[in-house]
Write a structure and sequence with these properties.
The chain is an alpha/beta fold. 41% of the residues lie in helices and 15% in strands.
């Protein structure tokens, strides 16, 4: 973890406090609900390369949430007002995910997990990169390169992990292989420079 964009991390911590309050108000007293963080906020955790507005996550329990209570306003370093929100449309059904991605998640320490009934876990850099190969937007490609340039994985490791994930998917995956080839070449060029 780095110290970049601490105001974004603070906004996420406030969102977690709100989630904790919602869970406690429901009367739930079981073990902490695990929140598996993907997307741009997970990239923020590993790299701090960009801001994001949506928080993409899945949970260890099924939750009924008042999403409007979870939007958090904050001010960026450049004094620009911003908001983060828990994306109610995010799901992991259509993302390319390795079957062991949850076991490989890392705990976001220092964000207050010990005092909440919601514990934040972050996709590993490799699983995060694999999850971005399917959608493959410009920001996804930039995120994959940011993770790779920090030496979290090599192009070969990304290819191997993505191919293992593909063994669990049904459908035409030729375009995934094209995306993998393209990003692997970009990783190799970037790391060689």
């Amino acid at each position: 973890m780095h110290n970049l964009h601490p105001e974004l991390t603070a906004a996420l911590s406030e969102m977690l406090d709100r989630l904790d309050g919602i869970i406690r108000r429901s009367g739930y007293m079981g073990e902490a609900v695990q929140m598996f963080l993907a997307g741009g906020m997970a990239v923020h955790y590993h790299c701090g390369t960009r801001y994001t507005e949506d928080v993409d996550a899945t949970f260890s329990k099924r939750l009924l949430l008042p999403y409007d209570e979870l939007a958090v306003r904050y001010v960026r370093e450049d004094d620009t007002p911003a908001t983060i929100y828990l994306d109610p449309t995010y799901n992991d059904t259509f993302a390319l995910l390795h079957p062991d991605h949850r076991a490989a998640c890392v705990e976001w320490t220092g964000i207050g997990n010990e005092r909440r009934l919601i514990h934040l876990l972050v996709f590993s850099p490799l699983d995060l990169a694999v999850s971005k190969v399917a959608r493959f937007s410009d920001s996804d490609q930039a995120d994959i390169l940011a993770l790779a340039t920090r030496r979290f994985f090599t192009a070969s490791q990304l290819q191997d992990h993505a191919r293992e994930a593909l063994d669990y998917y049904v459908g035409d995956n030729r375009w995934i292989h094209l995306n993998l080839t393209q990003i692997s070449q970009e990783i190799e060029l970037t790391l060689a420079a």
